[in-house]
Write a structure and sequence with these properties.
Blueprint lengths: L17 E4 L3 H12 L4 E4 L3 H9 L4 E2 L9 E4 L6 H11 L4 E4 L5 H9 L7 E6 L20 E5 L6 H13 L3 E5 L1 H24 L6 H4 L4 H7 L6 H10 L1 H23 L6 H18 L11 E8 L4 H11 L6 E6 L5 E8 L1 H13 L3 E2 L1
Parallel strand pairs: 1-2, 1-4, 2-3, 4-5, 5-6, 7-8
Antiparallel strand pairs: 6-7, 9-11, 9-12, 10-11
Length: 368
């Protein structure tokens, strides 16, 4: 990211200037992606340093008094000020379409409605993308590629306003999906907000643990706590704004935990082992519902290859897979604590897994 706009191979779907308010991860990533498609993007932030940093990274330019009204204003601010910024943007740019990318949709909509704000030109949206760390320095032009981008409309939303917001999503490689604010908040409460709480609480259990115990941590713990490093202040805002759906999910999870704990406390009690098995099996069925590659439900087989922890080994393995005509659907790496060896977990189609193991073995690779 060096601030240079690459020439567009085709005309952009987005016509007119786009003004981004909030130059953090999402705002800067939107700016970077649109600029690469030749769109004129201006940025602002309550922090001048943050705005200038986004400019330096190529997310846009600062708005000047000579600039005309933008076609679209994107509000990418923290949830607790989103409604205020949307209201100001609608007043400052009455001819523009205004959208926001906050992770909660009902709270700002209801706040603006209570204030009597004319929301004709407002279209709420939410790209289902992000990273554990925020800020313009972490922005990526491809952050939204192949990710859902929720667009919330109502019967009064003009077709041109909806089309413009969806054009931005498509231009950035995302997949627009229409939902009501209520549907959106219920859905993200389950698939985004609840996992954040669970990951954070689980990671918190590591604090009183001894160093030897933590040193045994493997990929399972890393997988289930990966998002626990997210910004606590931001999540306090998100969870507070979407508290009803999240509390309902937490209460349901609490019921399951209580049932599991009771059964495990006395596994010899009648039906206890079945209760444990049923809860674990429900988890397996739930995992099977998570969309896989390209949003499909197709499941893959995993082969684990031992690789020496030295430069070039992973590249050599991937080259071997290519030579063998084996398509890698996913890749996960794990290092063995205290040993110069790593494990590459490679997802492949089930029908090629046996051949992959045999062919790699013939070429000297060790598999588990």
């Amino acid at each position: 990211m060096n601030g240079v706009t690459r020439p567009s191979a085709r005309a952009s779907r987005v016509h007119g200037q786009v003004h981004v308010i909030g130059a953090g991860l999402l705002g800067a990533s939107i700016g970077l992606g649109l600029r690469q498609r030749g769109v004129d993007v201006t940025v602002e932030d309550v922090s001048p340093t943050t705005a200038l940093l986004a400019v330096d990274y190529g997310a846009g330019r600062l708005r000047t008094a000579e600039d005309a009204t933008p076609a679209l204003v994107v509000v990418a601010t923290p949830p607790d000020v989103t409604a205020d910024v949307i209201e100001r943007a609608l007043a400052a740019f009455p001819g523009a379409v205004v959208t926001d990318v906050a992770s909660v949709k009902l709270a700002p909509f209801e706040a603006l409605t209570r204030r009597g704000v004319d929301l004709t030109n407002y279209v709420g949206s939410h790209p289902m993308a992000g990273r554990e760390r925020g800020g313009a320095i972490m922005a990526r032009a491809d952050l939204f590629a192949a990710r859902p981008w929720i667009v919330c409309r109502d019967e009064e939303t003009p077709a041109n306003a909806l089309a413009l917001v969806e054009a931005v999503a498509l231009e950035l490689g995302a997949m627009p999906l229409e939902m009501t604010p209520e549907e959106h908040d219920q859905a993200v409460g389950l698939v985004s907000h609840l996992p954040q709480v669970v990951a954070s609480l689980l990671a918190g259990r590591l604090l009183p643990a001894g160093e030897r115990a933590v040193g045994l941590a493997g990929q399972g713990l890393r997988d289930t706590t990966r998002i626990a490093g997210s910004d606590p202040e931001l999540w306090v805002q998100i969870l507070g704004a979407n508290r009803a759906p999240v509390v309902a999910e937490l209460e349901a999870l609490q019921t399951d935990l209580a049932a599991f704990t009771a059964a495990l406390s006395d596994p010899d009690a009648p039906g206890a082992r079945r209760r444990i098995a049923d809860l674990l099996a429900a988890g397996a069925r739930g995992v099977a519902r998570i969309p896989g590659k390209h949003g499909t439900s197709e499941r893959f087989a995993t082969i684990t290859v031992l690789i020496d922890d030295r430069p070039g080994q992973l590249g050599a393995l991937l080259t071997e897979l290519g030579d063998l005509g084996i398509n890698m659907e996913d890749l996960r790496l794990e290092h063995s604590p205290g040993a110069q060896i790593g494990f590459a977990e490679i997802a492949v189609l089930p029908e090629v897994a046996e051949r992959a193991v045999a062919d790699l073995g013939e070429r000297g690779w060790r598999t588990l």
